[in-house]
Amino acid sequence: MVNVLGIETSCDETAAGVVDDHGRLLSNVVATQVDIHARYGGIVPEVASRQHVVEIRPVIEEAVAKSVGGWESIDAVAVTHGPGLAGSLIVGVNAAKGIAASLGRPLVGVNHLEGHIYAAWIDHGSDGFTDPADDPGFPLMCLIVSGGHTELVLMSGHGRFKLIGETRDDAAGEAFDKAARVLGLRYPGGPEIQRVAAEAGPSEPFPRAWIRDTYDFSFSGLKTAVIRRARQAGIYPPPPDGADRSTVATLARSFQDSVVDVLVSKAVDAADRHGCKGIVLAGGVAANSALRAGLLDASPVPVAIPPMQLCTDNGAMIAMSGVQRLREGLASAWDLDVVPGMRIGA
Question: Which SS3 state, helix, strand or coil, does residue 205 take?
Fold first, then answer.
């Protein structure tokens, strides 16, 4: 049995988790910085990296303590080394190097985006868990949606990725944050828009940036449409007596429906075009209930979606990706460096 410790510090979550080589989740600990960055309305890189320094040791120690066997049971250390914020990545990579060196264990550098995909392979103890590679099999179309990324990636096998489409401006999660700010909602915007949209009736017609003949995405025009509608409704800038709740709910619902429609439509079409046997939905925005339901309803092939706690940044997904890289003999050298602009399958 091989147990891999995964460390994740690409943005504002300090996370560590342990997964064994059968994909069983042994521990998963996340220290979030949401409350810290909420006062600024977004991530402040310097603040994030300093907070990682504070949290990294207790988070890792807790993850190892919760796994079976403690430090002696750790057989390898996987860590995100890109993409992400440079200062944040450095904290995780240096911690991983120190631990791997002290234990005499292999060090495995992991692409953060591959980690999100491999979250779907983690056996989190739920009934009826099925490895996406066994059923339905490859190829798979992977839709990665998060605060910094929106990509469609063709996965032809383990470790074999080809970028099919990506955002040309705002990522989906970033667009949620910006729309929420316009509507006077709190940060992070994704959960807030989902919560408020649930109170709305039918949505209003909102633009969809289809970008014909490509699987690329664009959400900046939708953000502009939210600003224009909010101004017309008299809720942006926010009025002194507060915005009308029903108006905010309707705009939130309309915005969310537009994003979900484009993401689902392009993912399903890309999967069909490339003869995929299934679709993997991954990334923080994959926790959005409207997106999950929309893709499950629209896809003619099986859809694999990690549970909510494994959609947002976490160490277990990095450990799972590390397990696969070790199977391929892809341990990293000690000069492993951070690559903030790392891409997947490009």
Answer: coil
Q: Hey, what are 14's tokens?
A: 């300090």
Distance CA 148, CA 150 (A): 7
Those residues whose C-beta lies under 8 Å from the C-beta of residue 160, and which sit 6 or more positions away, are none
Q: What's residue 136's pLDDT? A: 85
Residue 281 token pair:
């939905």
As a whole number of angstroms, the distance between CA 250 and CA 248 comes to: 6
Return d(Cα 81, Cα 7) in angstroms, integer: 10
Rounded to 10 degrees, the C-alpha dihedral 53/287/254/272 comes to: 120
Q: How far apart are CA 290 and CA 295, in angstroms?
A: 9
- Which strand (E) or helix (H) includes residue 111? strand 107-111
Write out the two tokens for 12: 């504002």
Q: Which residue has the tokens 């300090």?
A: 14
Average pLDDT over residues 99-119: 98
For 74, residues 6+ apart whose C-beta sits below 8 A from its C-beta are 3, 4, 5, 18, 64, 67, 99, 103, 105
What is the spatial distance between Cα 331 and Cα 314, in angstroms, rounded to a whole number? 20
pTM above 0.90, yes or no: yes
Angle between helices 245-273 and 172-182 (to 10 degrees): 170
**Residue 18, helix vs strand vs coil:** strand
Indicate the burial class of 267 (C-beta count within 10 angstroms; 0-12, 13-18, 19 or more): buried
26 and 18 Cβ atoms separated by less than 8 Å = yes
Structure tokens at 129: 């868990």
Distance in Å from the first CA to the final CA of the chain: 34
Which pLDDT tens digit goes with each residue over 268-289?
A: 999 999 999 999 999 999 999 9
Q: How far apart are CA 342 and CA 87, in angstroms?
A: 15
What dihedral angle (degrees, nearest 10) is formed by the CA atoms of 116, 122, 124, 129?
A: 120
* Pairing verdict, β 13-20 and 3-8: antiparallel
Tokens encoding 125: 């103890």
CA separation for the pair 280, 198 (Å, rounded) = 25
Rounded to 5 degrees, what angle do the CA atoms 10, 82, 296 make? 75
